[in-house]
Amino acid sequence: MGITWQDRISNVEVLRRAGMPAMEAMITRSQLRWTGHVIRMSEERLPRDLLYSELREGSRPRGRPRLRYKDTLKRRLGLAGISHQQLETLAIDRAGWRAVVRKSAEAVHREWEHREDKRASRRHAATATKQAS
What we know:
The chain is mainly α. Helices cover about 70% and strands about 0% of the residues.
């Protein structure tokens, strides 16, 4: 691509030039794919057991708790428009789940592009205001 550090090009622009989706979209896709795989596992498998488990005792430290896998999964499911009740029924159908994962990743990518466009327009307006002064 011929881009160097001295060009001072943002990561967003590098991803656009490479034709790659946003990192958040790639992470969403991977996380949802793996979750579907775990849900389809038999109930005695350890990964499935860990996905549905809760701690019986203990406390978490003060302040904002560190994000767990479940926390990020809930956020990604919310962005995809999937409720917790629908999760298992959707994941059992492999072809259907694959389509859900693809649509979710595309939705995250579109949201990311929208945020970047808004950020670019704010930057443009700020530079226009500075030049007018």
